[in-house]
Write a structure and sequence with these properties.
- The complex is a heterotrimer.
- By secondary structure, chain A is mainly alpha-helical.
- Chain A is built from twelve helices and no strands.
- About 5% of the residues of chain A have low confidence.
- Chain B has a domain of about 210 residues.
- Chain B has a two-stranded antiparallel ribbon.
- In chain B, helix 13 runs antiparallel to helix 15 and helix 13 crosses helix 19.
- The radius of gyration of chain B is 21 Å and the shape is globular.
- The mean pLDDT of chain B is about 85.
- Chain C is mostly helical.
- Chain C is elongated and about 65 Å long.
- The relative contact order of chain C is 0.12.
- The chains are: A mainly alpha, B mainly alpha, C mainly alpha.
- Chains in contact: A-B, A-C, B-C.
Chain lengths: ~325, ~500, ~120
């Protein structure tokens, strides 16, 4: 906990944006380890993947476009401090009557929470409670979450695709040196790593039922393998493998998989996202439903993250050429 | 199929959005978008009918009944709101294709419609949901879509406006999330109905007060209530015209809905108005908002900015009416939700027409437009008169109820203040009229014609609705009364 | 009541306020976004902390037969936060894309300079 505080304060003080980003990455990792201590393994997994990898990556690629140092501050903004202190005081006031930390008797653990713990295995047959709540009981929230990612992907595309006219095709690939061509060790190691990462992603994808993991984490890992490939071999090489247009369709496709599961249940006269129509035995149906839904998540997440990354580095290209 | 309507209303636009990417041709995408928005509209009409005959509809998602799963709970308030949202969005979409093709690049048109549909679905999702966390998720869906929609505006200031809106909106959403967390920690449930039952037992807890405060501040950030409104004018005015129209007509309404839902359904009137001095805060901020925003509006050169500030003022009216804490006040708020959507929809669409022909909405370019674009200008004048609250327009109805509500509380000085506020709006509407009708046109504007029919028609549809609902108040007043009674009666 | 009962929450509050302070007081847009992330992450920690039960274990059932004998932490906040993390990264991606466009349009990402350039 104290480390967290230290890092957060360091972020406030630092003027070098690159250092700030690194500190933020450390902060995320610390959070992830804190989540493990707090028994939230799934969340820790996600935080590590998202906070420490994806967000750092995005921030860094933005920084390479916008410059690394910020302007020194003019004076201490008292106004902000006052707002923050009032809000903080209100929060502390609120905690005074909060149920104590870690107590099992708190109302939060009595009402709905205990229902999931006691009943969910019998009803869904999924060992990982987080997965069963995520994909089944609150499947609609997860659908919403998927749409959020999809929206972000579409939004980023809409914002950054304007300079689409930058000439990719006419550039002679032999002249344009692939980034990091000289780093032979990196190239070899990453060539070995990438298949392993992809395999691991698939493992995480299908292992979500029994251990921590699931579609979201798998999607992030899958995308990070491709991102690694892009960084080592250049954007052009990556675009040769998967083009932006395909990624766009894939990310839409993932959302459609999820919703078609829902629509399937609608068509058979049950409520939206009711998995019981997918198979005869209820537990099997839940399994099938969760699996399909996780597939949808995985596909959308992976393709959207790649899409966002490609858009960002596409900007880098166009700026590099302009200079 | 009737039983599935609550979800279909949200799902139709939501599924249509990714499908758009597979279609390709912008014109087809537009038709597809239009059709799905109209489907949502028809569904919401049927839903309202259902609610009026059968009472509250409960729909459990995934077949898990609440509080274990997520449920949709459609009552008067939801049905009314989703009717407003889907109706305005459908009408605005009619005009969208002509207007938007002129304002953004061809390659982005499909993405635009995808985002538009997602935004619509997000708002419908917020309104329909009976689960607080689900509200948060859909809030973010519609918010993310609207940030990107705003950023598509052609002016570079659209970018900063969008980023500022994003930062403010996310802080607001995170505040709401903290509020949800605090509520959850005291009760252990996320379902609204369940929460309202559980919260009675812990009503005096400080944690709850904190939760309520965070929630209210978060929503007010989204709502652009007076001191927290600085992000709104730029966001509305630099967005593409139809986006401005959509957001001005619906987005703040959704935020007000959330506030109403929390004050009345979850926390209950008693808690909201007695434990916290919410009543006085709302009234004070409302009054201050009306005056500051109206006066700022008078000094604007950009007509979109002018109407955006007037939106801030109108939101302040609604909050003032809410703060009066009596039935007429609530009815006034609800009426104004509907009426304001009509006026602002019409005004911003008319501006879209001006933007299409003139290419600018600066006040100085309005000179002589009274002759060049008679129909568009007439629409703006009627919309403006409606803002002022002249009889025969919808604005009059809401002002009338507002005044009645203040007098019921015996606060007649406030009634006077409200009237003065209306005078201020006369001033800013007059400035447009003056520019359009009483200044000679500039030479360069001689080739400006009337706005194309595809924009003019939807504009006038809204204007006529303005006049119709201004004279025949049967429908709106009945619904508002029913809703108000339901809200006040249902709360524990 | 024991002071340590709420210690965890207090640290979270300080983190939150720290993030919010960065967001309000800094003029650089990237710094603002980072502040936002710190703020949001602190809220996540808050949610996860309230799910914890002392002595409990991660909510992955050990054996179907052993049920009831072990204490599990509450899975629901975990699910909520999984969703919230995804939402926050999506917001961040969009915000950064906006920052890139702003840099291209204005040549700077400092709030004051942009305001200055927008004055006619």
């Amino acid at each position: 906990m104290c480390f967290l505080l230290l890092t957060a304060f360091a972020i406030t003080r630092a003027h070098d944006l690159l250092a700030t980003v690194m500190l933020l990455s450390i902060y995320s990792l610390l959070c992830a380890s804190f989540f493990v201590v707090m028994d939230a393994v799934d969340v820790a997994f996600t935080e590590a993947a998202v906070g420490a990898v994806v967000s750092t990556l995005l921030l860094l690629s933005t920084l390479s476009l916008t410059g690394r140092f910020e302007k020194p501050q003019r004076e201490k903004p008292l106004f902000g401090l006052i707002i923050v202190l009032t809000t903080g005081a209100l929060l502390i006031y609120g905690t005074l009557q909060m149920p104590p930390f870690g107590s099992a008797a708190a109302p939060i653990h009595q009402h709905v929470g205990s229902y999931y713990i006691n009943q969910s295995y019998a009803e869904t047959g999924i060992v990982n409670l987080v997965t069963s709540v995520l994909a089944s009981y609150r499947g609609y929230d997860t659908f919403g979450e998927l749409v959020v990612i999809f929206t972000a992907g579409v939004g980023v595309l809409a914002l950054l695709s304007s300079q689409k006219s930058y000439p990719i095709a006419p550039i002679d690939k032999t002249i344009l040196p692939a980034p990091m061509k000289q780093h032979h060790i990196l190239r070899v190691v990453s060539k070995m790593l990438i298949p392993l990462i992809l395999l691991f992603a698939l493992y995480v994808q299908f292992h979500g039922h029994t251990g921590p993991g699931g579609g979201f984490q798998a999607g992030v890992i899958f995308a990070s393998a491709i991102v690694l490939y892009t960084m080592i071999f250049g954007l052009q090489a990556a675009l040769d493998v998967i083009s932006v247009a395909w990624l766009k369709l894939f990310s839409a496709f993932g959302v459609l998989i999820y919703s078609s599961v829902g629509l399937l249940s609608l068509l058979s006269g049950e409520n939206f996202l009711d998995y019981s129509v997918l198979a005869q035995a209820p537990i099997e149906a839940q399994h099938l439903g969760t699996l399909a839904v996780e597939m949808g998540i995985g596909i959308t997440v992976a393709s959207t993250i790649m899409l966002i990354f490609f858009s960002f580095s596409g900007q880098m290209h166009s700026i590099g050429e302009a200079q | 199929m009737i039983a599935q309507l609550p979800i279909l209303q949200v799902i139709v636009p939501l599924v249509a959005a990714p499908l758009c990417l597979f279609i390709g041709r912008p014109k087809l995408v537009w038709l597809f978008t239009l059709v799905s928005s109209f489907m949502a509209f028809i569904i919401s009409v049927v839903l309202l009918q259902q609610v009026m005959t059968n009472g509250t509809i409960i729909y459990s998602l995934g077949g898990w009944s609440a509080p274990i799963g997520i449920e949709y709970r459609i009552d008067y308030l939801n049905a009314y709101l989703s009717l407003i949202i889907s109706a305005t969005s459908s009408i605005i979409l009619l005009a969208a294709h002509t207007s938007i093709t002129a304002e953004i690049e061809e390659s982005k048109l499909t993405l635009f419609y995808v985002l538009f549909l997602i935004c619509l679905a997000g708002m419908l999702g917020i309104v329909a949901s009976g689960d607080v966390f689900n509200v948060f998720v859909f809030l973010e869906i519609s918010a993310l879509a609207s940030y990107s929609l705003i950023a598509l505006g052609s002016d570079r200031r659209a970018l900063t406006a969008a980023l500022r809106y994003l930062l403010v909106g996310t802080v607001g959403a995170t505040f709401i999330l903290i509020g949800i967390g605090l509520m959850y920690i005291t009760t252990g449930t996320l379902n609204m109905h369940d929460l309202s039952l559980q919260l009675v037992n812990v009503a005096d807890s400080r944690t709850l007060v904190t939760a309520f405060s965070f929630f209210t501040v978060g929503v007010c950030l989204k709502l652009a209530l007076f001191p927290l409104h600085w992000w709104l004018p730029n966001a509305y005015s630099f967005a593409p015209s139809v986006v401005g129209a959509l957001l001005a007509a619906t987005a703040t309404k959704v935020a007000i809905y959330i506030l109403l839902r929390f004050i009345f359904t979850i926390f209950g009137v008693e808690f909201s108005f007695s434990i916290l001095p919410l009543q006085y805060i709302l009234v004070a901020l409302g009054l201050a908002g009306i005056f500051v925003a109206s006066i700022t509006a008078i000094y604007q050169q950009d007509v979109k900015q002018l109407f955006a500030y007037s939106s801030v003022a109108q939101v302040a009216y609604m909050m003032l009416a809410l703060g009066l804490n009596n039935t007429s006040g609530l009815v006034a708020t609800l009426l104004h939700l509907f009426n304001h959507a009509l006026m602002k929809g019409a005004l911003f669409l008319a501006l879209a027409g001006v933007m299409y022909r003139v290419g600018s909405v600066q006040l100085e370019h309005f000179s002589g437009l009274g002759q060049r674009m008679p129909w568009t200008m007439a629409a703006i004048v009627i919309g403006g008169l409606s803002l002022v609250g002249l009889p025969l327009t919808v604005g009059f109805i809401s002002k009338w109820y507002l005044l009645r509500a203040t007098l019921e509380n015996g606060w007649w000085p406030m009634a006077v203040l409200i009237l003065i506020g209306s005078l201020l709006s006369i001033v800013y509407v007059w400035r447009i009229v003056e520019a359009a009708y009483f200044t000679p046109s500039v030479e360069s504007s001689s080739n400006i014609k009337e706005a194309p029919l595809s924009i003019l028609l939807p504009t006038w549809l809204l204007v006529l609705a303005n006049l119709y609902f201004g004279t025949d108040t049967n429908f709106t007043v009945t619904i508002s009364n029913l809703t108000a009674q339901y809200l006040l009666g249902a709360s524990p | 009541m024991n002071i340590w009962d709420s210690f965890n929450y207090w640290v979270v509050m300080i983190l939150m306020m720290n993030g919010l302070y960065i967001l309000i007081s800094q003029g650089n847009f990237i710094k603002k976004i980072i502040g936002l992330t710190v703020f949001q992450t602190a809220v996540f920690i808050f949610f996860i902390s309230m799910a914890k039960i002392t002595g409990a274990t991660a909510p992955i059932l050990k054996q179907a037969t052993e049920q009831g004998s072990t204490l599990y932490s509450n899975p629901l906040p975990h699910v909520l936060i999984l969703t919230a993390i995804v939402v926050s990264i999506s917001t961040m991606a969009l915000a950064l894309a906006l920052v890139i466009r702003i840099k291209q349009a204005y040549g700077t990402i400092e709030e004051e300079e942009i305001q200055h350039k927008d004055q006619p």
